[in-house]
Amino acid sequence: MPRGRYVVLHHTAVPQPHYDLLFELNADSPLAAARCSDWPPTPTTKFERIPDHRRIYLEYEGKISGNRGTVKRVDAGSCNVEPEGEHFLRLIFDGSLSILIPSHL
Length: 105
Prior knowledge:
Order of helices and strands: EEEEEEEE
Low-confidence stretches: none
Strand content: over 45%
Distance between the termini: 20 Å
Shape: globular
Radius of gyration: 13 Å
Helix content: under 10%
């Protein structure tokens, strides 16, 4: 898969604050998304796939409509996304960070 952009948003003012990792699979599609409890991730950080997000979140920071909390960008850049077996994707970020996330919800 080609190199794409990603963003990590710290989602707060919700019952369980977390980090949303949003990344491009295609230049014109919604952003694929995964949730985790830690950023930067550790070897034991678990990622949960969540529904795709609008592309506006590549740049957006602030309150989310419907009283759904606030997001603040904590990381952004580009990454490679590669299939890893039938059920996972490997994201390889600038530098040495590489993570494995579920490929589907």
